[in-house]
Amino acid sequence: MSKQINVALIGNPNTGKTSVFNALTGLNQKVGNYPGITVEKKEGVCKLPRGVKAHIIDLPGTYSLNASSLDENVVIELLLNKKDKDFPDIAVVVSDVENLKRNLLLFTQIKDLEIPTLLVINMADRMSYKGISLDIDYLEEHLQTKIALISTRKGQGIDNLKNLIANYKDLSITPCLNASEIDRDYFDSLRKAFPNQLLYKLWLVITQDVNFGKTDRNEIDAVANFKTKSKGDLKRLQQKETIKRYQFINNVLKKGQTIDISQAKDLRTKFDRILTHKVWGYVIFFFILLTIFQAIYDWSSVPMDFIDSIFASLSEWVKNMLPDGAFTNLLAEGIIPGLGGIVIFIPQIAFLFLFIAVLEESGYMSRVVFLMDRVMRRFGLSGKSVVPLISGTACAIPAIMATRNIESWKERLITILVTPFTTCSARLPVYLIIIALVIPEGRILGLSYQALTLMLLYLIGFVTAVFSAYILNKILKIRSKTFFVVEMPNYKLPMFKNVALTVIEKTKSFVFGAGKIILAISIVLWFLASYGPGDAFNNAENIVKSEYASQHLTKEDLQQKIASHKLEHSFIGITGRAIEPVIRPLGYDWKIGIAIVSSFAAREVFVGTLATIYSVGSDEEETIKNRMASEVNPILGGPLFTFASGISLLLFYAFAMQCMSTLAIVKKETNSWKWPVLQLVIMTTFAYIVALIAFQFLK
Amino acid sequence: MNTIIQNILVYTALALAVAFIVKTYVWSPKKKKTKACGGDDSCGCH
């Protein structure tokens, strides 16, 4: 029987920890959350030599075991709690060859917990570029561990790493620093009070500013109350500990590492000078954005048209092949068009994430954060707010969670409140279909009007977020101090595997996350559009026939009139008519109204809803875009989706707070209903007013 | 017969869809509270 061991991958941010995780687990990985909190938990399985199986957890990046954020707390909780089912048999500390000194601080802390600890030095292929050489034997001897020198980029050293993990029992658990050295008297009294406990573990528990969820409360409380020193004294001891650790690390690296700058062939400085330049930096960033949006349009049009026609044919095929009846209609007019409304956007979403992943992997995103900090400060945000604002282009939920590393509560709250303005991927389907309907296909300087409109919408979202932050900064009376530290990783050629995994994972979660709710809503909507109360619905055929008896309509026209009459008097038609007075000034009919209401669950439901409503009663094989283009405005008589109504709709979706899950996460993060309710009311009212002005001005 | 089966399938699908929506947005089982950071303000994050 094969043995399974728990392996914890730990390391500073930007050390290539996730690349090591990917190299070890490949596609045998899953992403979830830690129970009770919303920090992402990545775990996977890896087969090691001699039939050993490793359950690998990729823990959030942390600089030390002195937690200041929820992410870091997860690492400490796991390492302190032997009863946790994931408690590691071996801790694998991933470090980066260029920042070994800083990375070793975390290594020494983990090793002092007497957990078998293996040191992985990643990015070994960059040593010659940087003029770095390492004496591995010396380092192994003085750090009392085994070292795996690897390069995930080149795939070097992975087999050796697997071997070392499999032989984890050979690793020494001797601590690097004797905890008593921090303060002999204090630690002696601690040892006397808790004779059977590991001193360094006790010290970590005493000095943490966090709550422990999984660790035994009784044990923690007893230790945490052992505070014979004041908070200030404890902080001073913590600083002393850090100094002692760096003294130890410096001594080891003095002989174990040689850096000859004259041998370095570094392009980083040259690149940084241009990419973070106070003028060129912004110009380059702007052109990179332009290229991304142009590519999203140009590259994805063919696969999108293909998917659209496939779903139209599938509906037709189901209608022809299955016996006539309500369920066949549900499949052909409800479920298939509804799902088609989400699947069609896979190419564009995949391209968007492809570009974001490439920018992140290459190290450019950190330069953007640095660049934008100059701008952000003026609006009451932190440079760190850029990360949530940029990741908000994927989804506001992880973006809001990503605000946890902003130290100032005021900046964090403002970032949480304005992040939903950035254009998330759920808005993308709405934008794409409306832009395709109302913006002409022409080009200017090689850039299509449609791509420029999309980029403009992204900019509008970002600018609104920043200006709202400015206003909130003036209004909110919260005092807090702030500072900004960002690590600039080296420029790297993005690794295909990492980029591919990101694209697959993000697209999958978009499609399956949204797909389930869209499927459910499509079924409900189809039912509400296909059934109705009273004589007007049930006797529709006779009513229409007698109404048009004198007009000699063709059979097709008559069927069309009956279908239209039925839809109008169905449950959904009655509801739509009831809300129509509110949305008519914006240029929308009741069908769009229903789509807006249903998309309060999630924005991407909008297209699926319209696809379902427009399909009901129609026998023709039509793509979603064509169905929407042929819709007629019941009052004005022309096409429903005109430039004015389209722009109004785009602006409504740019500003409205239409995502229940985002509201839920804001409530969770702020621990109050006040903020999400304010967000909902203010954003939606603002969206309504802007959409109203746009339609009335443009019509 | 065909009509009855088709109607049964439609109402079953509808019931499942409504149940899923309610479970997702209205009613969600209470998770065990784990007093982790974020639940209150004693975590030192803010």
Automatic annotation (TrEMBL), chain A:
The keyword Transmembrane applies. It is found in: Cell inner membrane; Cell membrane. Residues 4-171 form the FeoB-type G domain. It is a multi-pass membrane protein. PROSITE patterns: G_FEOB (PS51711). The chain crosses the membrane at residues 279-297, 335-359, 413-439, 451-472, 510-529, 592-616, 636-656, 677-698. It comes from the Bacteria. InterPro entries: Fe2_transport_prot-B (IPR003373), Fe2_transport_prot_B_C (IPR011640), FeoB_GTPase (IPR050860), G_FEOB_dom (IPR030389), Gate_dom (IPR011642), GTP-bd (IPR006073), P-loop_NTPase (IPR027417). Gene3D superfamilies: P-loop containing nucleotide triphosphate hydrolases (3.40.50.300). Keywords: Cell membrane, GTP-binding, Ion transport, Iron, Iron transport, Membrane, Nucleotide-binding, Transmembrane, Transmembrane helix, Transport. The keyword Lipid biosynthesis does not apply. It holds the Pfam family FeoB_N. Belongs to the TRAFAC class TrmE-Era-EngA-EngB-Septin-like GTPase superfamily. FeoB GTPase (TC 9.A.8) family. Probable transporter of a GTP-driven Fe(2+) uptake system. This is Ferrous iron transport protein B. It comes from Flavivirga algicola.
Automatic annotation (TrEMBL), chain B:
The chain crosses the membrane at residues 6-26. It comes from the Bacteria. Keywords: Membrane, Transmembrane, Transmembrane helix. This is FeoB-associated Cys-rich membrane protein. It comes from Flavivirga algicola.
